[in-house]
Amino acid sequence: MIIKSKFTPASGLSNAHLQTLLPTFVRNKLKFNGVNQTLELEDGDFLDLVWTEKPKNNTPIVIIFHGLEGSIDSPYAKGIMLALKKQGWSGLLMHFRGCSIKGNRLARSYHSGETGDAKILLNWLQTHYPDSPLAAVGFSLGGNMLLKLQAELADSSPFKAVVSVCPPMLLNACANRLSKGFSRIYQRHLIGHLKRKLLIKAELHNYSQLINLNTKKINQLTSFWQFDDQVTAPLHGFKGVNDYYDQSSARQYLKKIKSPSLILLALDDPFMTQDIIPDESELSLNTQLELSRHGGHVGFIGGSILRPEFWLEKRIPEYLSEFI
Q1: Does this entry carry the keyword Hydrolase (predicted)?
Q2: Same structural domain for residues 71 and 121?
Q3: Using one digit for the tens of pLDDT, what is the confidence trace for 188-215?
Q4: What is the per-residue pLDDT for 26?
Q5: Are 272 and 295 in contact (CB under 8 A)?
Q6: For the chain, how many structural domains are there in total?
Q7: Beta 35-40 vs 46-51: how paired, if at all?
Q8: CA–CA separation, 32 vs 73, rounded Å?
């Protein structure tokens, strides 16, 4: 089902880039004090987790999957964790490998289609908190991963419901969009962040031998097409960037989703084009696509300039409360 969103941008803030960038500046002092936990993995690596608070008895647990290079310090992550806590639910943010304050131990990292770590976390939660209903929210990269995870789990999904916010469901189209116009600013920022981390890891792992990548080549990477072809794909077992994008883009899997799933997209999202929007025939009966004219990328700022309201922190709990 495809529906029209009720989101209305704040007066004077309908511009997509303002919607995308403003939360970083107006919420940079948002405070959230969580409970940290580290989950050791069998491959020798680890997942850093952050709880709003540990669940008691049958308290619902809502897992948060952040976006590319996000963390608990991302304004949208802190905002939704506080909103979940207000509902009386236990929010649990899973840092993708290397995205917490500690670098991960292995040469590999994470990517848009990496569902293995989420499955490990789910199994752990079902063992330790068997009476707690589970739900999940994914933002951007985390939203794409969550939809792919839902499709892979299909009828065996333990989630009562999930919400995917601004997922880049066609990775090649999004990589193209981020290489054009003002959107190149976002690409430059994110690639710069990835490269800085990669240069640190290159000192710990023999990347020149492992994936034929030395410091000079790392510094020459300027686009997602280049980074994903020379870094993401070889580090994670793909034949190349096209193989990675083809296998990891979530749009092709939507029909296989069997439990309630809400996808929130803004038509003006500067990280993507409208080409990524699926037809209604591509959606499963349990998947609802909510389209907004405005909102930017993980923005959705309503209210007013003087009193901004962060609509996602209302809409997401509103949807999840129907199921948990």
Answers
A1: yes
A2: yes
A3: 999 999 999 999 898 888 888 888 888 9
A4: 84
A5: no
A6: 2
A7: antiparallel
A8: 9
Q: What single letter denotes the amino acid at residue 128? A: H
Rounded to an integer, what distance in angstroms lies between the CA atom of residue 12 and that of residue 207?
48
- Give yes or no: residues 191 and 164 share one domain: no
Q: Is 61 exposed, middle or buried (0-12, 13-18, 19+ CB in 10 A)?
A: buried
Same domain, 137 and 278: yes
Q: Are residues 24 and 123 in the same domain?
A: yes
User: What range does the domain containing 10 cover?
Assistant: 2-170+249-320
Based on the fold, state whether residues 286 and 150 are members of the same structural domain.
yes
Structure confidence by residue, pLDDT tens digits, 252-309: 999 999 999 999 999 999 999 989 999 999 999 999 999 999 999 999 999 998 899 9
The secondary structure of 63-131 as a DSSP string is EEE--TT--TTSHHHHHHHHHHHHTT-EEEEEPPTT-SSS--SSS----TT--HHHHHHHHHHHHH-TT
Sign (positive/negative) of CA torsion 132, 135, 139, 140?
positive
The arithmetic mean of pLDDT across residues 16-22, rounded, is 96
Do 95 and 63 form a contact (C-beta atoms < 8 A)? no
Cα angle for residues 129, 39, 115 (degrees, 5° grid): 85
- Comparing C-alpha atoms, which of 169, 140, 168 is closest to residue 77? 140
Q: Would you say residue 162 has pLDDT above 80?
A: yes
Pair 35, 148 in one domain? yes
Q: To 10 degrees, what angle do helices 116-128 and 141-153 make?
A: 70
Max CA separation in the chain (angstroms): 54
Same domain, 239 and 270: no
Q: At residue 206, what are phi and psi to the nearest 5 degrees?
A: -80, 75
Closest CA to 165 of 177, 178, 180, 147: 147
Burial (Cβ within 10 Å: 0-12, 13-18, ≥19) of residue 230: buried
Q: At what angle do helices 312-320 and 75-86 cross, to 10 degrees?
A: 40
Could you tell me if 293 and 265 are in contact, meaning their C-beta atoms sit under 8 angstroms apart?
Answer: no
Could you give the residue numbers annotated as active site?
140, 269, 297
